[in-house]
Amino acid sequence: MLGSLVRRPVYFNETMEQMYLIGVGSLFLVVLTGAFSGQGFALAFSQELAAFGAKDYLGRIMSMAIVRELGPTLTGLMVAARVASGITAEIGAMKSSNQIDAMVAFGIDPIKKIARARLISLMVMVPALTIVCDVVAILGGWIIGLFIANVTSTMYWSAVIYKLNFGNIFMGLLKPICFSFVIAFISCYMGFTSKGGTKGVGRATTNSVMMTSITILIVNFLITKIVGSILKGYL
Questions:
Q1: Apex CA 159: angle with CA 132 and CA 71, to 5°?
Q2: Which residues contact 5 (CB under 8 A, 6 or more apart)?
């Protein structure tokens, strides 16, 4: 899959179709997740901060936690739950119905046409969806801070902007890019290696979602640990 990124032919229409299915198709789910998770996160922290008289720090905590951790992880898990299952099921169904063998017989590389298009689409759309989730979650926190926690808009947004530094933004964009590779590799692999007809496709789909979700959590921890130690002075 990585080697196919720099080889022709390029299936532009297939890639654009996958971008629409992955990005636009997941937009409502990501917005809904970001809105309610951001509001719940802000509500819980505002109550704890109020006990110490530190409600001024709500914006900092929201900006740091959402941009660095919550936004990328939630977006990755939501996209994995929706997209990984679809990719695995689609490729598995194509394999069980001999469509992939037909592609090979006509001289079409299934890795270039099927896997590469989905990998490129995920590399573009997962970071974009993460940015949307971050913005919606921070807006949700602002609503809670303004109407429930009695934090002024100026105080909240100045604290949010203060924590939007290079380290947090870099880590917040690096994670979804890595998650896109995880989703593409595992879902395509499980689809291409599925066996046993429709029953095997069902097992491969279940395993794909499970493995992708677990791997995203592991990769998230490793990036936080390794990159966080490297960029310690910028966080």
A1: 25
A2: 116, 119, 120
Closest to 185 in 3D by CA, of 88, 47, 89: 88
- For 179-233, the pLDDT digits (tens) are 999 999 999 999 988 887 778 888 899 999 999 999 999 999 999 999 888 887 6
Bond before 9 cis per omega within 30 degrees: yes
Residue 86 and residue 33 in contact, taking contact as beta carbons nearer than 8 Å: no
Token pair, residue 169, equals: 């933004």
| Token pair in block for residue 98 | 């001999």
Token code pair at residue 47: 């109550």
Q: Where are the domains of the chain?
A: 3-228
